[in-house]
Design brief:
heterodimer; A: 247 residues; mainly alpha; three-stranded antiparallel beta sheet; B: mainly alpha; 9 helices; globular
Chain lengths: 247, 186
């Protein structure tokens, strides 16, 4: 059963807005009403419940040529400008000394592959990003399982940050023709201008002949983001200067 | 060029809306802990909460043009956070149990009996329907006034007070139901 006095004054008592003229009356009521007394006590105890700290931090990035254009797309949690920018990531422990890493590298490579593949399958976008970070540290050549998981992330992950990270990890593998085909194919299916620009840069860096057709399509697409069209045109110029022709 | 340290949230948001997107970092520094607290109290999942905080700032960038002058940025962020949380449930991403329970975050050194009582209170809070837990989180953990809560929930201040009162009564019931009669702390 609800206490009518409590309904009227309890919340005002808790936030200190109870009128001075009613304060003494409600204090007397608390002496007599177990329900209101319990609620006041619980309100105090709620403040003692512990909570974790967020590990999210802003990480500064150095300046990079294409970021002002990416800023125009600004659809992911990366804010950038001509002088650099930042992104939000989780704070992790400092890396171990270099020689220790070298000694352990061969022993942990297999384990990392397993961990990376496992993390890329997680529900949390944060865990998947961490999985890609693991995969990116594996070096080349990566295991077929890791490559497959990265391709899956690029093609199907719903989180744009994850797809962007997968693109960055895969651009280290463009010596592999299958990876170049995947990156070129993703240009046609990707929604995010930011990821598209990253794909275009990767393909142009790799002098990927496979990218000519999708780049031409992007360059002439009326509804395409202007930054994407500009980057596609620039990539085509780069390909042409490297002797790749298509006319 | 504004000096972010001296600028109000609203001033910064107006610049973000005008295209200075890197200034969102200032808003992140000012508000991410509060948003994390909201999400963690609602989900009790640390990683999901961090993902949702990132989602909020992604939506701020994506929808920056919808920010209206005269609106408080803090309240706007909470509205975005509520939508992100709601979407998380709708997409069934948050249906896992509240995994980071009391024992996962409680510091060592709390006497065992006290620890058990606080764990029961935490469990009672988790048991409340989401809208009742939310109003307690708003008022107790985010320090929102009833006027601010009323604006966020689209009700009047009296309704906000009524909802909080009902939430507290239910919290009490859930806590008492889990507490042995001889060991009640309240």
């Amino acid at each position: 059963m609800s206490c009518e006095t409590g309904e009227r004054w309890l919340t005002a008592y808790l936030d200190g807005s109870i009128p001075a003229t009613d304060r003494a009356g409600f204090a007397a009521h608390l002496q007599a009403c177990e329900e209101c007394r319990d609620c006041v006590a619980l309100w105090g105890q709620l403040g003692e419940l512990p909570e974790p700290q967020s590990a999210l931090r802003i990480v500064s990035m150095p300046a990079r040529r294409s970021w002002p254009m990416l800023a125009a797309a600004a659809a992911v949690l990366t804010a950038v400008s001509a002088g650099g920018g930042w992104w939000i990531g989780r704070q992790t422990a400092a890396p171990p000394p270099r020689d220790e890493v070298a000694a352990l590298r061969s022993e942990v490579a297999g384990l990392r592959s397993l961990v990376a593949v496992s993390m890329l399958g997680q529900d949390s976008a944060g865990a998947r990003l961490q999985g890609i970070s693991y995969a990116a540290r594996l070096g080349t050549p990566e295991s077929p399982e890791v490559l497959e998981a990265l391709v899956g992330a690029l093609q199907h992950d719903e989180n744009v940050n994850v797809r962007l990270a997968a693109c960055d990890a895969l651009r280290r593998q463009t010596a592999n023709p299958a990876v170049r085909r995947v990156l070129a194919g993703a240009l046609a299916t990707e929604d995010s201008p930011l990821v598209k620009v990253s794909l275009i840069e990767a393909l142009a860096d790799a002098s990927a002949r496979e990218s000519v057709r999708p780049l031409l399509n992007l360059k002439s697409a009326v509804n395409e983001d202007e930054a994407v069209r500009t980057e596609a045109a620039r990539a085509l110029d780069r390909l042409k200067s490297k002797g790749i022709s298509w006319e | 060029m504004i000096r972010p340290d001296n600028a109000s949230d609203e001033e910064i948001m107006r610049h973000v809306r005008a295209g200075e997107v890197s200034l969102v970092g200032v808003l992140f520094e000012r508000h991410h802990r509060r948003l994390f607290r909201y999400f963690w109290r609602m989900t009790r999942q640390v990683q999901a909460s961090e993902d949702l905080v990132q989602e909020v700032f992604m939506r701020v960038l994506r929808h920056r043009e919808t920010f209206r002058d005269g609106h408080a940025v803090g309240a706007w962020l909470i509205s975005i956070a509520r939508n992100a949380h709601h979407d998380g449930w709708r997409r069934k991403r948050l249906e896992r149990p509240m995994e980071d329970g009391f024992d996962a975050v409680a510091p060592a050194g709390i006497p065992i009996e006290r620890r058990q009582e606080l764990a029961r209170l935490a469990a009672a809070l988790d048991e409340l329907p989401a809208e009742q837990r939310e109003i307690i989180v708003f008022h107790r953990y985010l320090g929102m006034s009833h006027a601010e809560i009323a604006e966020t929930l689209g009700c009047d201040e009296g309704a906000s007070r009524g909802r909080l009162h009902r939430a507290l009564q239910n919290l009490r019931q859930a806590f008492l139901a889990a507490t042995p009669a001889m060991r009640r702390m309240v």
